[in-house]
Specification:
alpha/beta, 25 strands, 6-stranded mixed beta sheet, Rossmann fold, 484 residues, UDP-N-acetylmuramoyl-L-alanine:D-glutamate ligase, 10-stranded mixed beta sheet, Protein-Tyrosine Phosphatase, Chain A, single chain
């Protein structure tokens, strides 16, 4: 029987027979998620081409390793060269993009990336989805590792580089496919959240705090996306939900499937006797008062123990034993740019992290302090996401740097794009932090922050860099200046 798909598009679009698709062209292939999806398609046996405005390392190098040569720049001519049976459109592509325009004009079959993922891969597997404001990437990578170590041979598509995979996708041949469920919009022709295409059967809802202020009007609008996600779960499914977020628990109450709450201190599944050392975190998991096992998790931080509890709940539902779960937790290496130790030049540990939401900043500082007990921590922060650049969380950031001996704050990235009255004010934030007992400075550029850190840092200190982007190349500049 033919696998017919009707694109979720605001424009009239032809029905697609996926059984006849062999050549797939990816618009926006230079992005982390789209590039990884192209690699997944290639491994699955498709002929893959793609276009982007410019493709830079490391994605250019990764595409080359997968045997994919992207077209530089968008042009209708690329479609002539690619001759695709299907075009997959990334959400960075706008309606006026010349190549996207040509796709519509020529009536070529097109799908958004999330719908293509759902139709090509998830429709044939048991879809395991991690959704929530925080912890999606780490939880997805950890869930994949637990299943892989248990011999389940899962597929996976993760929004960051999982160190255990050496990348962010895994084709696998097993029943399960783990996917990071992003609530961001899907494509220019489909403004719904990406995760609505992911057919969840087993899911983790880590947390719900306001984010993506560029597409969600307010908290109620943001929560509505997760309500729609929860409604997708079938009766035979399973939903693990973080108990620390009451609104997430409330949203989960409407699920048709079984729901299990988890948390460090309260919930159906909790961690008891938590401690940290150089190996990571150690805890006993109790499920409704009954001991599941004593576990060691190979990464640090109370928030990562919460992530582990969510994956334990999901894996117990999938039939993994406590011993299999323990092997996966113990062997987990983490995700690139999540508490990643870049080096220790002159005895100064330099750690890189993706943290940008105030909750993530607070939890990351606490986790790094637990990893390096008794050492002075110097924190540098770049407001780069569409939410962190705005003053929505101005007050919350003033309480997010507790435990840092110094906080250095960059100007919001591309600040001119945000109206001044809506923009995060790093100078005001520095004053508020100083008043709360955390010495802080607002410095305009990465070069000035690097100079300040080199001047301040001493042997035994820990420097923590936090940004969901490049931070002006601060990591490389700092390591070079320190002699690392």
């Amino acid at each position: 029987m033919a696998h017919l798909v009707q694109p979720a598009s605001s424009d009239p679009a032809p029905e697609i027979d996926l059984d006849r698709v062999h050549r797939i062209h990816v618009l926006g292939i230079g992005g982390t998620g789209m590039g990884a999806f192209a690699g997944l398609l290639k491994e699955a046996g498709y002929e893959v081409t793609g276009s982007d405005e410019a493709v830079y390392p490391p994605m250019s190098e990764m595409l080359a390793a997968w045997g994919i040569t992207p077209f530089q720049g968008y042009s209708p001519d690329n479609l002539e060269r690619a001759r695709p049976d299907l075009v997959v459109v990334g959400n960075v592509i706008r309606r006026v993009n010349p190549e996207a325009t040509a796709v519509r004009e020529r009536g070529l079959p097109q799908l958004s990336f999330p719908q293509a993922l759902g139709e090509i891969f998830l429709a044939k597997r048991q879809s395991c989805v991690v959704a929530g404001t925080h912890g999606k990437t780490t939880s997805s990578a950890l869930w994949t590792q637990l299943l892989a170590r248990a011999g389940r041979d899962p597929g996976a598509l993760i929004g960051g580089v999982a160190l255990d995979l050496g990348g962010n996708f895994r084709l696998g041949k097993g029943a399960q496919f783990v996917v990071e469920g992003d609530e961001y919009d899907t494509a220019y022709f489909d403004k719904g959240p990406k995760f609505l295409h992911y057919r969840p059967e087993v899911a983790i809802l880590t947390s719900v705090e306001f984010d993506h202020a560029d597409i969600y009007r307010d908290m109620a609008h943001y929560e509505s996306a997760f309500a729609r996600f929860v409604a997708l779960l079938p009766e035979h499914g399973h939903l693990a939900v973080g108990s620390r977020y009451p609104n997430a628990v409330t949203l989960a109450e409407d699920a048709a499937c079984g729901v299990e709450t988890y948390g460090l201190e309260h919930g159906d599944l909790v961690a008891h006797g938590l401690s940290f050392d150089e190996q990571g975190a150690h805890f006993t998991a109790l499920r409704r008062g009954k001991e599941i096992g004593r576990f060691t998790l190979g990464v640090w931080g109370r928030h990562n123990v919460e992530n582990a509890l969510g994956t334990i709940s999901a894996c117990l539902h999938l039939g993994l034993s406590a011993e299999e779960i323990g092997q996966g937790l113990r062997s987990f290496q983490g995700v690139r740019r999540r508490q990643q130790l870049l080096g220790s030049p002159k005895g100064i540990a330099v750690v890189d992290d993706f943290a940008h939401h105030p909750t993530a900043v607070r939890e990351t500082i606490a986790a790094v302090r637990a990893r390096f007990p008794g050492r002075r921590l110097l924190a540098a922060f770049e407001p780069r996401s569409n939410t962190s650049r705005r003053n929505i969380h101005q007050v919350q950031y003033a309480h997010a740097f507790e435990g840092a001996a110094l906080a250095l704050l960059a100007e919001p990235h591309a600040a001119a794009q945000i109206a001044e009255e809506e923009r995060l004010d790093p100078r005001r934030l520095a004053g508020e932090l100083a008043a709360a007992g955390v010495p802080a400075k607002a410095l305009p550029t990465a070069d000035e922050i690097a100079q300040a850190l080199v001047k301040e840092a001493k042997k035994g200190d820990v420097i923590l860099l936090m940004s969901n982007g490049a931070f002006g190349g601060l990591a490389k500049k700092l390591l070079a200046a320190l002699g690392g």
